[in-house]
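Sequence in, structure out.
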Amino acid sequence: MKHRHYKMILISAVLLALTACTVGPDYVRPTTDVPPSYKEADGWKKAQPKDDAAKGPWWETFNDSLLNTLEERVAISNQNVAAAEAQYRQARALVQAARAGFFPTITAGASVVRSRRSSNVGGASSFSSSGIATDFQLPGDFSWELDIWGKVRRQVEASQAGAEASAANLEAVRLSMQAELAVDYFALRSLDAQKQLLDATAAAYEKSLQLTKNRYVSGISSRLDVVLAETLLKNTQAQAIDTSVQRAQFEHAIAVLVGTPASVFSLDAAPLSAVPPAIPIGVPSELLERRPDIASAERSVAAANAQIGVAIAAFYPTITLSASGGFEASHLSKWLTWPSRFWSVGTSVAETVFEGGLRSALTDQARAAYDASVASYRQTVLTAFQEVEDNLATLRILEDEAGVQDEAVKAATQAVTISTNQYKAGTATYLDVIVTQAAALNNERTLITIQGRRMVAGALLIKALGGGWNESAAGPSGNGGAGGMETGK
C-alpha cells in the first residue's frame, strides 16, 4: 500500500506539472509611430514589396571588385564581429542552461568514512568497543522542482529572446563594420582623386612657371610674376603631399576593419570616379523588419517581459519532489547486499511567509526594466527613421550641389583659359592668371569632395535601411527596376 501511495503522489505531481499555468503578462510587441512615407523621398522611386527580400552582399552594387574583396574579409577577420559571434554563442548556451530547469536533478556518489565516537556518548551497535567504526555509503538523490507557475518557462522565454537579441546584435555589428569599411574606402578613394588632380595641376603649373620664366628672361614679365608662379606651384605640391596624411589614416583604419596589422596592409591608389548606385528605399514600415538593431531592441523587450513572469512566480509556493536511495553498511562485505539498501520518497511544499517586501520590489524592478526596454526600442526606431531621412536628404542635396558645382568647374576652367590668353597677349597681369587658376583648383577639389560624400552617403543609406536586398526578386520598374531607387530628375 505504501508503494501505491507514493506512486499516486508521483503521478499527481506529474499531472500537476503538465497542467500548470504560466504567470505574468504574455508578450505583445510595443506599438510605434510609423510614418506612411519618408519625408525626404520626394523624387525617389520606391522599391516594390520586399518584406522577405534576402539580405546579400549589398556592397557589390558599387561595382568595385577590391571593395567586394575587403568586405568579405570583414565577416571573417574583424575582431568586433568575432566578439559579437562569441557573445551569440554564449547567449545560446544560456538558453540551454535555462531549459535544464525543466528536468530533475539526479546525483550519485560513494563514500567511506572511518570515525571514532566519544566514550562519553552513548554509542550505536555499529561501533566497536573502541568506539571506532567504518561507514560505507552508495547514495543516490533525486530532486525535481515542479514548474507549476511557469517560472522556468518564463526563464527559457527570456533566454530565447536574449539569444535572438544577441543574434541581431551580431548582424548589427557586422553591418556596422561593413558600412564603416565602405565609408573609409570611399573617403580614401576621394583622397586618391584629389591627389591625382593636385599632381596634374602641379604639372600644369610647372609649365606656366617655365612660360613665366621665359617671358621674364625676354623682359616681357616681371620678377613678381615668376615668384607668384613659384608660390602657386609649391602650394599645390604641398597640398598634394598633405593628402597622404589622411589617406594613410584611412588605410590603417581599413586594415583594422579587415583584421590585418596596419604595418603590412596597403592599397594602391585608384581615384574615385563612380556615382551612388540605385538604392531601394522601400516604405518606413519595412525598416522595423530589416534593421538588426531594431530587431535586437524588440527582442530585449520580449526578454524583459518574460522576467516579469519570473518575478511574479516567486509569490507562489514551490513544490518539490524528492527521492533518495542506495546502500549503506558498516562492513565492506555487506555494503552492496540487499539488506543494506535504504530509500525515501517524498514531496514538499514551501512558501515564503515574510521577506520584507523583497518579491514586490523585484517585481517592480522587472516592470521598470520592461518600461525602460520599451522606451529604448522606440528610441531605436526613431533614430533609424532619422538616419534614413538624413541620408536621403544628403544624397538629394548633394546631387543638386554636384550639378551646380560641375557648372562652376566648367566656368572656372574657361576663366583660366581666358586669363592665360590675355596674359600672353599682355592685356592681363599674371595675378589675374593666379587668381583664376587657384579658383579652378578649389572648384575641382570641391567637386571631388562632393562626389566622395555622395558615395559615403549611399553606403550610410544602405546601412540605415538595414543592409542588402535582392534586386532579382522584383520585376522591372523604370531604369532601376522594382528593386532600384533613382531620382526623378
